[in-house]
Amino acid sequence: MAEELLIAQDVYLKSGIHIGTKFRTKYMEKFIYKTRPDGLSVLNLQQIDERIKLATKMLSHYTPEDILIVSRRENGWKAVKAFAELIGCKFFAGRYPPGILTNSRLNSYIEAKIILVTDSWPDRNAIKDAMQIGIPVIALCDTNNQSNCIDLVVPCNNKGKKSLGLFFYLVARDYLIQKGTIKTEEEMRLKLDDFMEE
Fold first, then answer.
1. What Rg value do the Cα atoms of the chain yield, rounded?
2. How far is Cα 168 from Cα 174, in angstroms, rounded to an integer?
3. What are the beta bridge partners of residue 70?
4. 126: burial class by Cβ within 10 Å (0-12, 13-18, 19+)?
5. In 3-state terms, what secondary structure has residue 32?
6. What are the extents of the domains in the chain?
7. Distance CA 110, CA 101 (A)
8. How many Cβ atoms are within 10 Å of 148's Cβ, its own excluded?
9. 85 Cα distance to chain centroid
């Protein structure tokens, strides 16, 4: 089983990508593997891995210029910036002012054909904008997230610096490989540590 994963299982586990919250929404229940004695939900690692593959495949249908990554959550800023630098897409780290995707008169106006958000709740303005212009939304969702208006949910710990770093590293690596920009992981300019906060 381990060789089918995008990265060694222990790397996944060390990043805490599978550790959810004490709250769970009805939609996210299907991704929960178990609840620990301390009440934290644990997400199914196999499903996380499958959804990361799906997200990468979805993104690989687009050129970097058409991709927008949004992260209001500060823990995702380093990972989002590294991802954008590596693949050449647009990103928004910080508070997303509504209208950036919908109002071409704004100085901050951005054109995008697909967006990826690190958390569907703090990044809801970006999701609303994407819905208005009819572009697909990929969202990282923890056990406490709602999944309304999202085209692809990637279940994961979307609050931890290490898990967000690992997610963006894996997607950047496989996006570049699928696009033919690099052949192997060794050719990547940035390493996993460059995506993670200390």
1. 16
2. 10
3. 92, 117
4. buried
5. strand
6. 2-195
7. 5
8. 11
9. 15
pLDDT one-digit tens code per residue, 5-44? 999 999 999 999 999 999 999 999 999 999 999 999 999 9
| DSSP secondary structure letter of residue 129 | H
Residue 120 and residue 127 in contact, taking contact as beta carbons nearer than 8 Å = yes
Q: How far apart are CA 161 and CA 195, in angstroms?
A: 9
Domain range 2-195, its CATH number among 3.30.70.1070, 3.40.50.10490, 1.20.120.1760, 3.40.50.620: 3.40.50.10490
Q: Give the total residue count for the chain.
A: 198
The pLDDT tens digits for 42-88 are 999 999 999 999 999 999 999 999 999 999 999 999 999 999 999 99
pTM for the full model?
0.95
Distance from C-alpha of 2 to C-alpha of 131, rounded to nearest angstrom: 37
Q: What is the C-alpha separation between 171 and 140, in angstroms, rounded?
A: 12
